[in-house]
Amino acid sequence: MVMFFYFEPRVVSIACYLLPLSFSVAKDNNYDKIIIGIDPGTNIAGYGIIGVSKNNITLISMGIFDLRKEGEHSDKLKAIFEKCTELIDTYLPDEMALEAPFMGKNPQSMLKLGRAQGVSMAAALNRKIPVFEYAPKRVKQSVTGKGTASKEQVAGMVQALLKLDKAHSKLDASDAVAVAICHHFMFKPGMASKESYGSWKNFVSKNPGKIK
Fold first, then answer.
1. Are 123 and 81 in contact (CB under 8 A)?
2. Dmax (CA) of the chain
3. Comparing C-alpha atoms, which of 126, 119, 122 is closest to residue 79?
4. How is domain 4-210 classified at the CATH fold level?
5. Are strands 131-134 and 95-99 parallel, antiparallel or unpaired?
6. Backbone φ and ψ of 6, nearest 5°
7. N or C, which terminus of the chain has less Cβ within 10 Å?
8. Helices 151-162 and 171-186, interaxial angle, to 10°?
9. What is the residue extent of each domain of the chain?
10. 94 is an active site residue
11. What tens digit of pLDDT does each residue of 131-184 get?
12. What are the residues whose beta carbons fall under 8 Å from the beta carbon of 203, sequence distance 6 or more?
């Protein structure tokens, strides 16, 4: 069953921080769970993949999708879907965690961010991977203990938690890893979620006003 949970040939440039872990090595490490975190964006989108073994968290990969060379908005959405699918097929995550777009003053920007989030979500659901959503303040609170933490503070805490030699140069990548870590901290098997959906059809039927 595909679950969605709510809590609060085109070339795309990718900048990534990749540990020496191939797909086969990641599987041999017998992680209890692999989580992919996504920080949606239509110019720069961040991703982070962590492996969880009991209470230990290991960074598998983190980086960005640089979409600024994509001409049309639709091309950017297509690229996000393709690259999320590529990461999913490579690392076989058990769950996807997304940062929810925050409420801003520009409706057009909110609409574009929502679409970017939607195609990321669709990539996971297309591979039958459950999706979880967290508000930005929830992510910051979970990782740093402060809901108003800066991106730099989030990056510093990600570095400390994962015992990295240095922080990633792109804050969007650190944000994505923070989303994955937040999900690990916040969600436990059997925990009741605010909303759950077994499929897109179920989501649409319960939220007719969101789909027009």
1. yes
2. 47
3. 119
4. Nucleotidyltransferase; domain 5 (3.30.420)
5. parallel
6. -115, 125
7. C
8. 60
9. 4-210
10. no
11. 999 999 999 999 999 999 999 999 999 999 999 988 788 899 999 999 999 999
12. 4, 197
| pTM of this structure | 0.79
Ramachandran region of residue 145, left (φ > 0), alpha (ψ -120 to 50) or beta?
A: left
Task: Determine whether 89 is an active site residue.
Answer: no
| Alpha-carbon separation of residue 118 from 4, 178, 211 (angstroms) | 12, 20, 12
Task: Decide if 175 is catalytic.
Answer: no
98: Cα separation from own chain's centroid: 4
The residue annotated as part of the active site, out of 70, 95, 133, 172, is: 172
Catalytic residue among 95, 99, 133, 175: 99
d(CA 70, CA 75): 6
